[in-house]
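ok, trying the design again with the full structure, not the truncated one.
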């Protein structure tokens, strides 16, 4: 196909949280402060007045919630499954995540092995709903039919915003906006600034089970070598669409596990890819601020990696 200009990724996520509660609050305050008892009758109580107003159709806002301390709950990471957490780290919190990755792909012609480390992700809480993120990784690739190579991958910067907290059937959800910078080695960099987006959502099924998913798209795969073959031809512009679903379970007070499916599908590439994987993993809390993890997974399609695995962890401060 001719020169393919980068498709702008559809990323319109609108949060509409409007209410008429402020008007009701002002009206309630005015009524309660200025009411006068009728001659010979006791003055109505606050609860009676509130009941009368609510009967008339008014709704009152709940008292503002106190600021949440993110350190009151155990650390939760965006690694090591493909589906990220819908949570943000919280105002003033810094969280560093890291790990190592291994994958192998073998067919009748070639055998390819990939290693990647340190899988660094630094998350900095800007507010209770927003965090800044930066990623860095280094990769080694060995192929019996091609020249081996290694080098740093393009750095990825991002902002993650908490869209909604769980309420009834509404999931906890967040969106991450990403931008990769052409900082990587020639053999791994796309040579361009590449945008990306990821929408994450989680339903808490009960105290121990959760169901999560993510839907996203990344220009040229953001140069991620983990699962998608990088083509450094600057004329080859494409989108890597992603979808995942994960079932999480709290196994003990310190251990959680997950089982996940995810897929990566390219659009606009000379040689299109359709990759599909399943994987499982566990997290173990050393203390509320430190966690270690392990994962293992398998490819489901011919072009997918046969096997991949990784270990890592995170700490916050």
């Amino acid at each position: 196909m001719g020169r393919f200009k980068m498709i702008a990724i559809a990323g319109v996520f609108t949060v509409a949280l409007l209410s008429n509660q402020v008007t009701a609050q002002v009206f309630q305050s005015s009524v309660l402060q200025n009411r006068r008892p009728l001659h010979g009758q006791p003055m109505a109580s606050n609860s009676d007045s509130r009941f009368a107003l609510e009967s008339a159709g008014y709704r009152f806002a709940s008292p503002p919630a106190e600021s949440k301390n993110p350190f009151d709950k155990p650390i939760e990471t965006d690694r090591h499954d493909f589906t990220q957490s819908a949570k943000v780290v919280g105002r003033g919190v810094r969280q560093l995540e890291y790990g190592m990755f291994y994958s192998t792909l073998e067919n009748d012609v070639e055998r390819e092995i990939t290693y990647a480390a340190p899988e660094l992700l630094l998350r900095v809480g800007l507010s209770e709903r927003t965090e800044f993120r930066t990623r860095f990784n280094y990769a080694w690739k060995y192929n019996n039919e091609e020249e081996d190579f290694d080098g740093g991958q393009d750095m990825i910067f991002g902002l993650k915003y908490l869209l909604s907290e769980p309420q009834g059937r509404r999931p906890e959800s967040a969106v991450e906006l990403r931008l990769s910078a052409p900082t990587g080695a020639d053999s791994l960099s796309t040579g361009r600034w590449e945008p990306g987006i990821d929408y994450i959502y989680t339903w808490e099924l009960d105290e121990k089970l959760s169901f999560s998913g993510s839907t996203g798209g990344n220009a040229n795969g953001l140069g991620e070598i983990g699962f998608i073959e990088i083509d450094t031809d600057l004329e080859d512009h494409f989108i890597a669409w992603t979808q995942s679903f994960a079932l999480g379970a709290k196994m003990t007070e310190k251990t959680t596990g997950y089982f996940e499916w995810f897929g990566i599908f390219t659009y606009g590439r000379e040689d299109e890819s359709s990759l599909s994987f399943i994987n499982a993993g566990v997290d173990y809390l050393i203390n509320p601020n430190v966690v270690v993890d392990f994962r293992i997974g398998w490819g489901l399609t011919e072009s997918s990696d046969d096997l991949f695995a990784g270990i890592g962890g995170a700490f916050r401060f």
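Keeping the full-length input from now on. Residues 21-55 form one domain.
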